[in-house]
Design a protein that fits this description.
The chain has three domains: 105 residues, Rossmann fold, CATH 3.40.50.2300; 168 residues, 2-Layer Sandwich (Heat Shock Protein 90); 127 residues, Rossmann fold (3-Layer(aba) Sandwich). Helices cover 50% and strands 19% of the residues. The chain has 16 helices and 18 strands. The strands form three sheets. Strands 6, 7, 8, 9, 10, 11, 12 and 13 form an eight-stranded mixed beta sheet that branches. It has a five-stranded parallel beta sheet with strand order 2-1-3-4-5, sandwiched between helices. Strands 15-14-16-17-18 form a five-stranded parallel beta sheet, sandwiched between helices. Helix 2 runs parallel beside helix 3 and helix 6 packs across helix 10. The longest helix has 97 residues. It starts with 6 loop residues before the first strand and ends in a 6-residue tail after the last helix.
Length: 563
């Protein structure tokens, strides 16, 4: 309650009753105003805005119940206390309350009862107003708090976005750092290999011009050195592609024992004389479908890592055995480190065990990750183990590592068993390529001058006639002519917005019987061609003379227009 007295309007047409009510309330500190009629009462309600109206039901001009309705319609907050000697039954009281009255009194009224009831009604009204004010303040506080929470959430979102951007920047920086390390290692390896290639070629060029010329045996040694370096360049490229999963496997069903046995001398030469290499082959081993060159690269990478782990020498054991998984193991194995899916089935396990220093847990957790290496820049590209893992995954197998510090490490490649017969060609058969003497003509299309010269030299040396084009436009001009052409050998990547596939399709329209062979230095072209069941066969660069000779011979033996 405020310091101002509460105003009460007393409405009663009986002068004695009106005096009694007004006098009683006035003595209790209330400001009292009076009205004897309904119209006067409604006017005073508008003008004075009393807190409470003490309203008699019986008025000369209008029912008190109707007056109550009108008061409540204009100001619902005004308290109405109705009085009447006629409110004697329950229906009378219900009618009064339904008219909007807050309470009622039955006359005659006791002097102490009237102020008590008025005080109670005013107190309840005040509490209602306080509660309403509290609710309004609560809604305001909820609105303010909601706004504060929304702002806090906005800041959290902004901080999260900034954190995400910072993490992305960090990942990008780590990628750049890893790429820098990779680039340094690859550049170092390639520069070493190119030094061997170019140096041997320089010596051959100078030796041929001497008088007397260099001995054939010495030239042969220099050529062999250049060839080995070139093969190492191709192997390094395959490592990069295998790591990136961009090099499609050239699967051949073979006996792993024979592949490893052939590989024995290279393996021993790679690890050096201080390390003893012992092999335990499985004469009755199952066959598996693998890319032999990728398999040899994987074994060589593992052997080199084992060599580096045995600084003062040791023993390297290579064991081949058959193994089976009857069910899919649940959870992590109790011993060892596994990469890949251990699906139920038969596998050929190729194990390499060394007596080296072992691998620490934190190193093992990242040893097969891209770009990861513990060697200094220039001492390795960091792609060796990732190539091994990429090869095993592409074969559908898995890899296990068991290592103990100071004792050694065993890495096992588990390659799925194949039920097919061996498709691996005998190496001696690959080396003996008969020269073709049938006068067949091959159109060679290549935009790289060096590759074109070499290809034409190889094709001509195989006994074929050659025609040359440096792009698809020149090739189409030749195809429109009358020259005999038995096979189109074209690179896929060509200038002037027409690639080798487009050229081959146009050529086949012009000459339906024409045989076609595609080539590309980008291994993804081979994978895409195999995935889309492309109508033309493909050979991937770098290809060897024996591989090209075998492919050309097989194509020319097929029915024209079918390949």
């Amino acid at each position: 309650m405020s310091g101002q007295p509460v105003t009460i309007l007393v409405v009663d047409d009986d002068d004695a009753n009106r005096y009694f009510k007004s006098h009683t309330l006035g003595r209790n500190g209330y400001r009292v105003i009076e009205a004897a009629r309904a119209d006067e009462a409604l006017r005073l309600v508008e003008a004075e805005e009393p807190s409470l109206v003490l309203l008699d039901v019986q008025l000369p001009d209008l029912s008190g119940i109707e007056v109550c309705r009108r008061i409540k319609a204009r100001n619902a907050g005004t308290i109405v206390l109705q009085t009447s000697a006629a409110f004697t039954t329950g229906d009378d009281r219900v009618a009064g309350l339904e008219g909007g009255a807050d309470s009622y009194l039955v006359e005659p009224i006791e002097p102490n009862e009237l102020p008590a009831i008025v005080k109670s009604l005013l107190r309840l009204h005040q509490e209602e107003q306080d509660l309403r004010s509290l609710n309004e303040n609560l809604e305001l506080r909820v609105t303010q708090r909601t706004a504060e929470l929304a702002e806090a959430n906005r800041q959290l979102v902004a901080e999260s976005r900034q954190r995400t951007e910072a993490e992305e920047a960090l990942r990008h920086a780590l990628k750049l750092d890893a790429l820098g390390q990779l680039t340094g290692g690859v550049a170092h390896d390639f520069n070493n290999l190119l030094t061997v290639v170019l140096g041997n070629l320089d010596l051959i060029e100078q030796g041929i011009g001497r008088t007397p010329p260099m001995a054939v045996a010495q030239i042969g040694r220099l050529v062999s050195g250049a060839r080995r370096a070139g093969e190492d360049c191709a192997r390094l490229t395959r490592q990069l592609l295998a790591f990136a999963r961009r090099d499609p496997l050239r699967l051949e069903v073979c006996d792993v024992n024979s592949v490893v046995a052939r590989f024995d001398h290279l393996l021993k030469r790679a690890v050096g004389e201080r390390i003893t290499v012992q092999m335990e082959l499985a004469p009755e081993s199952w066959r598996c479908a693998i890319d032999v060159s990728q398999f040899e690269a994987a074994i060589l990478n593992l052997a080199i890592n084992a060599r580096d782990a045995m600084e003062h020498g040791g023993r390297l054991d290579l064991v081949i055995r058959n193994t089976s998984i009857a069910w899919r193991p649940q959870g992590k194995p109790a011993k060892g480190f596994v990469l890949g899916e251990m699906n139920p089935g038969d596998y050929i396990a190729v194990e390499l065990s060394d007596t080296g220093c072992g691998i620490e847990d934190d190193v093992l957790a990242h040893a097969f990750d891209p770009f990861f290496t513990t060697k200094d820049i220039g001492q390795g590209s960091g792609l060796g183990l990732s190539q091994v893992y990429g090869f095993v995954r592409q074969c559908g197998g898995y890899l296990t590592v068991d290592t103990r510090l100071g004792v050694g490490t065993t890495i096992s490649l588990h390659l799925p068993r194949s039920g097919e017969a061996s498709t691996l060609n005998d190496p001696e058969e690959q080396k003996s390529v008969e020269r073709e003497r049938n006068g067949r003509t091959i159109l060679v299309v290549e935009d790289n001058e060096g590759v074109l010269d070499l290809t034409v030299e190889v094709v001509a040396d195989l006994g074929y006639q050659t025609l040359i084009a440096t792009d698809a436009i020149q090739a189409l001009d030749i195809l429109r002519g009358d020259a005999r052409i038995d096979l189109l050998f074209t690179d896929v990547v060509m200038p002037h917005r027409m690639n080798g596939i487009d050229l081959a399709r146009k050529a086949r329209v012009m000459r339906p019987d024409l045989r076609v062979l595609l080539t590309s230095g980008y291994a993804a072209h081979r994978r895409e061609a195999e995935a889309s069941d492309l109508e033309f066969p493909m050979i991937t660069k770098p290809y060897r003379r024996t591989e090209l000779a075998k492919t050309l011979r097989e194509l020319l033996e097929h029915e024209p227009g079918k390949v």
